[in-house]
Amino acid sequence: MRNLTLLTDLYQLTMLNGYFEKNIHEDIVVFDMFFRKNACNGGYTIVCGIDQFVDYINNLHFSDEDLEYLKSLNLFSDKFLEFLKDFKFTGDIYAVPEGTVMFPNEPIVTVKAPLYQAQLIETALLTIVNFQSLIASKASRVCFAAQGDPVFEFGLRRAQGPDAGTYGARAAVIGGCSATANVLAGKMFDIPVIGTHAHSWVQKFDTELEAFQAYSDIYPDKCLLLVDTYNVLESGIPNAIKVFDEISKKGYKPLGIRIDSGDLEYLSKEAKKILDKAGYTDLRITASNDLDEYTISNLKSEGATINSWGVGTKLITSADSPSLGGVYKLAASYKGDILEPKIKVSEDPEKINNPGYKKVVRIYNENNKAEADLIMLHDEKIDDTNPLTVFHQTYTWKTKTFRKYKIRELLEPLYLNGECQYNRRSVLEIKDYVKSELNTIWTQYKRILNPQVYKVDLSQNLWDLKKNLIDSKKFL
Amino acid sequence: MRNLTLLTDLYQLTMLNGYFEKNIHEDIVVFDMFFRKNACNGGYTIVCGIDQFVDYINNLHFSDEDLEYLKSLNLFSDKFLEFLKDFKFTGDIYAVPEGTVMFPNEPIVTVKAPLYQAQLIETALLTIVNFQSLIASKASRVCFAAQGDPVFEFGLRRAQGPDAGTYGARAAVIGGCSATANVLAGKMFDIPVIGTHAHSWVQKFDTELEAFQAYSDIYPDKCLLLVDTYNVLESGIPNAIKVFDEISKKGYKPLGIRIDSGDLEYLSKEAKKILDKAGYTDLRITASNDLDEYTISNLKSEGATINSWGVGTKLITSADSPSLGGVYKLAASYKGDILEPKIKVSEDPEKINNPGYKKVVRIYNENNKAEADLIMLHDEKIDDTNPLTVFHQTYTWKTKTFRKYKIRELLEPLYLNGECQYNRRSVLEIKDYVKSELNTIWTQYKRILNPQVYKVDLSQNLWDLKKNLIDSKKFL
Q1: Would you state the pLDDT for residue B473?
Q2: Domain Nicotinate/nicotinamide phosphoribosyltransferase: where (chains A, B) (predicted)?
C-alpha cells in the first residue's frame, strides 16, 4: 500500500508544529467534511472513496524518509519531528456509508480527534473523497440519461493521471457503469472490464474486411466490430455484415458494432436499417466519441438507435464540472470538558459553516422515499412516534410537518478511539447500494438540467446555536 | 516503483492476443502521439510527463499476479500469456525533450517497435503525457497572466486523486509556478513547498489576535497571516498590523498577508492602503480563491494590489478545459523491408493523421524566435545554406520563404533498440528549459484569449504522400 502520509498541504504541518509548540495539539476538536454545491450541477451527490480513505488512515505513519525530508525544510523543531515518529490516528470518525446519496452542507465525514490528528488528515480526505464522489455522481447522471442502456467507462487515456483513471473507473462503476476498459482497475477492484479493438487493428491489415475476419477468427463469440475506420455506411457496416454472415454460419451469434466518430444520430439510424435488413435486428449498437449526459439525452430524444454507450473523457474528468468542492471545517473544540462550537464567518452567507458536533438524519415517507434531511446536534434525539416539523434555514416560516415517517441516521462509526469499525464491501455491492439509494430519491432531484432542490434543514437547537454564534461577535 | 503494466485499455490486450494468434505481432510499426488542439484553448502546449513515461517503460513487465488476473478473464490463450511473461520493450522511441513547446498535429512522441509492444503502451503514454502537458500548459498561462508575480500551486484537495495532485504539482512547477503546497510532491520531485496556516488555526484560538500572535511566536521570520477568517478590513488587517509591529520590534521583517475570500480587487486595494499607512509598504499581498488566468488578468487590469497568487482548483484540474486530447495513431507498418505509410480517414478532415515515419523541424530566425515548424519524413534533410519555402497544409498557395534561419530537430532518441537514451534532468532544470522555450515564442501565440495560430507545415514529400494515400481508396 502506498504511503500517502505526506499527501497533505504544507500548512497542515506548519500548523501541527505550531499546535505542538503551544501545547494544544492534544485538544479534542471536531471537523466536518461537507460540500456546498452538488457535483456536476446536479441535484444530489453520491459519496464515494471511503474505502480509500480507510486505507489512508490505516496506513498513516511518517517513515524515516518522510521525517528526513521534513527536517530538510528547516521549518520544524526536532522535538516535533520526534513526536511525529509515533503518529497514529486515535480518534473517532463518522462517515456515511460509501455510495450514500447526500446533499449540500451535510456532514459526510465527521472527525473527532486530537487537534494534530484531525488537522493532518484534511487534505488527503478531501483529495480522495472529492474526486471519487465527483465521478460516481457524474456516472450516475450519464447512466440516468442512458435510460437503462449499459454505459461503459472508456476514459483512461484522458484521465488526470493513473490514479484518476483507476479510482475514477472504480467510482464510475459504483455510480452505475457496467464495466470499464481500464485493466488495472479491473484487477484492483474486481470490476468487469470490456474491450474489443481499435482503429489501428483495422489499419494494420490490408483491407477492413481482412481485419474484421481476423478479429472474428479469434473472438467468434465476442464479435463486436469498430466500423468507422474508413467509412461507416459504405465500408464498415457492409464488411461487418459479411463477417457476421460468416460466423453465423459457424453457429456464433454476432455481438454488434461500434461507431466512434461522425454524426451518431444519423449513422446509428442508417446502420440499424442496414443491419435489420440483413437480419441482424438485435445487435449491440455502441457509440463513443465525446459523450456525456447531455449528448446522450439529446441522442435519445432524437431517436438515435444506439443501445450501448462508451463514455470517455467527459466522464472520467467530469469535464463540465471537474471538481467537487468538498471542504473540511472546524466545528467545535473542547476546552477542558466543555465543547465550544466554532464558526467561520464570511461575507458570503453560504460559506458560514454549521457549528457544533452534529449528526444527519434522513426522513423517509411510508414508501421509503426520502422527504428531507435534518442536521442536528450529536446528542439530540427524535421521537418518531410524534409528528416532526422541519423549517427552512433561511425562510424559517416555510415549514413542513411529517406524521407518518421513518428516520435514519446517516453517519456511521468508521473509527472509534482509533479502532477501525469499517466493514469493507465489494465495489459491486456498493454499486447495488447506490442503486437502492437512488430509488429512494424522487426523480425531480435526478433531473439532468435544473433539478429540484432537496430539503436540508437544521434542528431548532442547531439553528439557535448558529444564530447566537453569528450574533455574538465574541470571535472577532 | 509502481507496476503500471496493466494501466491499459483491455482492447490493447485483446488486439495483442489477436496479433499474436495471427503471427504479425513482431511486425515493426510506427505510431505517433500528437494532439489536435492546444491545451487550455491556448496557442501552444508544453509537453510534460516524459520522465514518468520513461519510468513506465523501464518498469514494464507482467507480474505473475498480472498474468493470473489476465488468465481469469478467459480472453487469452495460454501460449499468449506465456509469451507476455518475457515482455520487454525492445524498440525505438523518439520524443521531444520534456518542457518543449509544441503545436497541434506534430508528433511529440514517435514509437517504432514490434506491433505488440507499440500497441500496448498507447494508453499509459497518453494518460501520463496528456495530463502533465495539460497542467504545465495551464500553469504557464496562469503565470503569463500574473506578469512575473509568483504563482503558488494550492490545488491538492480538489485534484482528481493523489496522482493528479502530485504529478499535477510537478507539472505546475515545470509550467512556471514558484512552489506547491503539496508536501509529497515536494519530497518526490525536489520542488519548493510553501504553506502558512488555515482558517482553522485562527478559529482554534479565542481571538484572531491571539492566533496571529501564536503564529508569529513560532514563525517570526515567516510571518504571513491569513486575514479573512472573520473580517478582512475590520479585524484581519488591524490584528495583523499589531502583530507585525510586535515582531518588527524584535527585529523580524513581516512577510505579508493572504486573502482567501471576498472581492479581491477591493480588499487588496484597501488592505494595501491600511498597510502602507502603517509603514508596511513592501509586504506580500497574496490572494487565493478560485483563481485562474482569466480572473488574474482581470484583477491585474483593474489595478488590484495583489503581488502573489495562490491558485488551486482551476489550475490543478485545468477547470475550463480539463483534458488534453492527445492521440496515438498508426503511421506506418513494415511489410518485409518495405515501410507502408498508414492513414486513418475521417469525415472530419482534422482527424486524418499524417502518415509515414516522420520528424519535426523548428525554424528559428536570427534572433532565436521560432517562425514555423515543418513535419517531414524521417529521412528527409534540409540544406540550411539554401532558402527554405514552406506552404500551408490546406491553402497551399500560402507560402513563406526563409533565407536566414536556423533549424532544430525536435524529436530526440529516448530509446534505441530498447536501450534507454534518456538523460534525466531535475524538475527545476526542466522549468528553466520551459522558460527558455517560451522566450523563443512570439507573444501573439501566448495571448490568453484568441492567440494567433502558429505555422505547422508539411514538407512537399509528406504532403504528396498524404494526398496520394487519401486519393487512392485502396485502404477501403
Answers
A1: 60
A2: 152-321
> Under an 8 A CB cutoff, do A197 and B11 touch?
yes
Distance between CA atoms of residues B13 and B76, nearest Å: 9
C-alpha cell at B421: 537514451
Q: Do A11 and B198 touch (CB under 8 A)?
A: yes
Which residues make Cβ contacts (< 8 Å) with residue A330, sequence separation at least 6?
A29, A30, A31, A342, A344, B199, B200, B203, B204
Q: What is the arithmetic mean of pLDDT over A141-148?
A: 98
Whole-number Å distance between alpha carbons of A230 and A216: 19
Beta partners for A333? Answer: A29, A340
Q: According to the model, what pLDDT value does residue B345 have?
A: 77
CA distance B440 to B311: 26
What's the pLDDT tens digit per position in A68-85? 999 999 999 999 999 999
Give first-to-last CA distance, chain B, whole Å.
44
Structure confidence at residue B475 (pLDDT): 47
- As a whole number, the mean pLDDT across chain B is 96
Distance CA B289, CA A76 (A): 28
For residue B62, give the amino acid letter.
F
pLDDT (tens digit, 9 = 90+) per residue, B31-50?
999 999 999 999 999 999 99
CA–CA dist A73, A94 (Å, integer): 34
Question: DSSP code of A366?
Answer: T
The size of the A-B interface in CB pairs under 8 A is 325
B18 → closest Cβ in A215, A333, A476:
A215
3-class state of residue A299 by DSSP: helix
Burial category of A317 from C-beta neighbours within 10 Å (exposed 0-12, middle 13-18, buried 19 and up)? buried
CB interface of B with A, residues 249-308, below 8 Å? 261-262
Beta bridge partners of residue A372, listed in sequence order? A363
Cell digits of residue A288 = 463513443
Q: How far apart are CA A222 and CA A256, in angstroms?
A: 9
Domain layout of chain B by residue ranges: 136-316
Task: Find the CB nearest B208 among A29, A230, A476.
Answer: A476
- Dihedral over Cα of B259, B262, B265, B267: its sign: negative
Which CATH superfamily does the domain covering B136-316 fall into?
Answer: Aldolase class I (3.20.20.70)
Q: What is the pLDDT of residue A473?
A: 60
The three-class DSSP label of residue A376 is: strand
Distance CA A12, CA A70 (A): 13
Which residue ranges in chain B fall short of pLDDT 70?
Answer: 347, 473-476
